Automatic annotation (TrEMBL):
Annotated segments matching region Disordered: 596-619
Lineage: Bacteria, Bacillati, Bacillota, Clostridia, Eubacteriales
Biased composition (Basic and acidic residues): 596-611
EC number(s) on file: 5.6.2.4
Official protein name in the record: DNA helicase RecQ
């Protein structure tokens, strides 16, 4: 049987499994059923795709997300895994074509919608085929306890029974509750399955909660600062989506919107623009996101507080699926609690469920108010313990100065007290700022001792300050026509028993400073994606391009070491990216010292980049200088010393020279570098596994073979083959 790690690298281009993946894969290929619970973006697909390639026969993936199937199948085919899908979006002819391919043995992974399992035609065809695995994606859909119950999931177990030979069954979900888990085991009729619960923590997501900020201004600043990054902004209502959409598009931001009030067509178009990187920002209600697999979403902003932690965590989980750092920002205002309460109250749920929803809303609100690590709070909610504070949330990270706002708070509270009957925030602001508004005069509020005592605040600032007081529970805010009221905490502040300490507002930060080469490589990717009609991330993920832009591979041997680059992709796109990288290196006169990530983790600091020295006047390329020195008969050590280059760089200079179309028509003396016996040993391994990747060659050989030695031997072979 194939080796799992080799499959992972050669098809998907990843060098290591993520936590949990390998155990799950081992279990599946040993023929044991599994249930795997992983957070969104945790890397579930690899867990059934790698076994699919390791076992004889077809893997059937049952998925409810029709919109995702095409992308997933495109992605698999693009790395050389023969796949197809069958769902209602295909015509009869297209379905026939898939059936034919299945019968011809041309399909390794087949995605089907659950409804298809009831079709006799499908059953007839499938029952004669060797099926190695049935993978059930979004397995919680089988449970009525889950939030996406699908009745057709109930037929899965019967479908499996009808097969000639029972394949191994793997079930995947991100829903962790015990009821759902038990239902999955029972209703899918799993055979004594091993249950894997991967940690729910998504370390790369920074959790930020902002209270009392001017939301629209905050978003505008943030989005403009990060205009090249992909992001989603979630709003609680359609109206808010539309209004924010207007504001941002009027400022020239490339933005799309998504909610149930738009036509199917418009929604589809906006979603595609976002997925294909034609627009960088999506403003949406929570209707958007199921079935979005885009890995490079760098931020998710909640314009309003969501109604429970499950929803919140699922929505922020859409950020950073590629494991790159991403920000999740919740902009909280006390009115959000009212809005969510209203939505629950006016909904159609029965009283028991309503109570349940309200209690979940309370926990969400508690998260916002909590003073400790936000991540700890969330993970505890999911039954997981975090040993140390995360240092990657706004509570943990806040180094902001603590400002004593007790006196200002007392001014506001005593004004609320003196106004006798409850008013909205606007009126309180007007009184405190000494407005001459007619209503104030009519109600004689200008006679209060608190009239005009906070003129040093602007209207907006004071509103924000009052909102912050409400957010921290120093005064209450609510009612059908929301008004401000005192509470027991207000009295403590007035009496001087409780200090009001606020941390200063966090400055908006630019997410990442991408280098120029990254932008160039993104353009190459966009062009390929357009040509092939697939989303850019199917070509390469952002993290792959970033790795390329930092380490700057210049040949296939180096390129394959980049995370996310497999053999098929090298074949298809390798040259396009390598050429741009080489162009960039030449234009900027950069010397690149290649570093092996896998083997040299400690000293790996990316490339040492430095301007080349010596006689280079900017016109002669770095590799040409090296070649001239070889032509002069200098040996490698001497060149290395004179030019201050690593031996690896010299090897890559020779490769660059050949890649530029030159022949090696001069002598290169390899005699000091290795002997015949060593050469034969390396070539034996090369014959077996090819020479794209040096690491597996090295792994097959004994210690004394250094990377340089192996590379020289390969280089000599290439030169000889070219000459022959
Ligand atoms: P899920 O289905 O659990 O939400 P996916 O299977 O879509 O997550 O994986 C999320 C992202 O993580 C994808 O971009 C995938 O390519 C990437 N990924 C998965 N496994 C690995 C790995 N071992 N190394 C690097 N990236 C991985």
């Amino acid at each position: 049987m194939k080796n799992a790690l080799k499959v992972l690298k050669s098809y998907f281009g990843y060098s290591n499994f993520r936590k949990g993946q390998e155990e799950i894969i081992n279990e599946i290929v040993s023929g044991n059923d599994v249930v795997s619970i992983m957070p969104t973006g945790g890397g579930k697909s690899i867990c059934y795709q790698v076994p699919a390639l390791m076992m004889d026969g077809i893997t059937i993936v049952i998925s409810p997300l029709i919109s995702l199937m095409k992308d997933q199948v495109d992605a698999l085919n693009s790395v050389g895994i023969e796949s197809a899908y069958i769902n209602s979006s295909l015509s009869t002819l297209e379905i026939r074509d898939v059936f034919r391919k299945i019968e011809d043995g041309d399909i390794k992974i087949l995605y089907v919608a659950p409804e298809r399992l009831e079709s006799m035609e499908f059953l007839n065809i499938i029952s004669n085929i060797n099926i190695s695995q049935v993978a059930v994606d979004e397995a919680h859909c089988v449970s009525t306890w889950g939030h996406d119950f699908r009745s057709s999931y109930k037929h899965i177990s019967r479908f499996i029974e009808l097969l000639n030979k029972r394949p191994v069954v793997s079930a995947f979900t991100a829903t962790a509750t015990k009821e759902v888990r038990d239902d999955i085991v029972k209703l899918l009729n799993l055979n004594n399955p091993k249950v894997f619960v991967a940690g729910f923590d998504r370390e790369n997501l920074k959790i930020i909660i902002e209270k009392g900020v001017n939301k629209k201004q905050y978003i505008l600043d943030y989005v403009i600062e990060n205009k090249d990054q992909s992001g989603i902004i979630y709003c609680a209502t359609r109206k808010e989506v539309d209004s924010l959409y207007e504001v941002l598009s009027s400022k020239g931001v490339s933005v799309g919107r998504y909610h149930a009030g738009l036509s199917d067509e418009e929604r589809k178009e906006n979603q595609e623009d976002f997925v294909y990187d034609r627009s960088s920002l999506m403003i949406a209600t929570n209707a958007f996101g199921m079935g979005i697999d885009k890995p490079n979403i760098r931020y998710v902003i909640h314009f309003n507080m969501p109604k429970n932690i499950e929803g919140y965590y699922q929505e922020i989980g859409r950020a950073g699926r590629d494991s790159e750092k991403s920000e999740c920002i919740l902009l909280f205002s006390p009115g959000d609690v009212q809005t969510q309460k209203y939505i629950i109250d006016t909904g159609t749920l029965n009283p028991q469920r309503k109570m349940n929803e309200l209690s979940k809303l309370q926990t969400m609100t508690d998260l916002v108010y909590c003073n400790g690590c936000y991540r700890r709070f969330i993970l505890e909610y999911f039954g997981e313990e975090l040993k140390e504070d995360c240092n990657n949330c706004s509570n943990c990270e806040s180094t902001a100065e603590v400002v004593d706002k007790t006196i200002d708070a007392q001014k506001v509270i005593s004004c609320v007290y003196r106004m006798k009957r409850p008013y909205g925030i606007g009126m309180i602001v007007d009184v405190l700022r000494g407005s001459k508004n007619q209503k104030i005069i009519d109600f004689k509020l200008n006679e209060l001792t608190t009239y005009g005592i906070m003129k040093d605040y602007s209207k907006e600032e004071l509103k924000d300050f009052i909102n912050t007081l409400i957010s921290h529970g120093y005064i209450n805010y609510g009612g059908e026509y929301p008004v401000v009221k005192q509470n027991t905490k207000s009295l403590e502040v007035i009496k001087g028993n409780e200090k009001v300490l606020f941390k200063e507002e966090r400055k908006i930060q630019k997410l990442d400073t991408n280098n120029d080469l990254f932008a160039i490589l993104k353009d190459v990717r966009r062009d390929i994606a357009m040509e092939e009609g697939v989303p850019p991330y199917i070509v390469f993920g952002d993290n792959t391009l970033k790795d390329m832009s930092v380490r700057m591979p210049i040949n296939n041997t180096q390129l394959i070491e980049i995370s996310g680059v497999g053999e098929k992709k090298i074949e298809k796109y390798g040259d396009k990216f390598l050429n741009k990288i080489k162009e960039y290196i030449d234009e900027n006169n950069i010397e690149v010292k290649w570093s092996h990530k896998d083997n040299n983790k400690k000293s790996d600091k990316g490339n040492d980049k430095k301007q080349s020295k010596g006689s280079n006047n900017g016109k002669q390329k770095s590799y040409e200088i090296t070649i001239n020195m070889i032509k002069e008969g200098k040996d490698f050590n001497c060149i290395s010393e004179e030019r201050g280059l690593a031996i690896t760089t010299i090897i890559s200079h020779i490769e660059q020279y050949m890649n530029a179309g030159n022949d090696i028509d001069f002598k290169i003396d390899f005699s000091d570098l290795f002997n015949n016996e060593e050469e034969n040993k390396v070539l034996e391994v090369v014959d077996k596994i090819g020479f794209y990747r040096v690491k597996p060659i090295k792994d097959e050989l004994s210690e004394e073979f250094s990377y340089d030695k192996i590379k020289f031997i390969i280089l000599k072979k290439i030169i000889e083959e070219k000459r022959a």
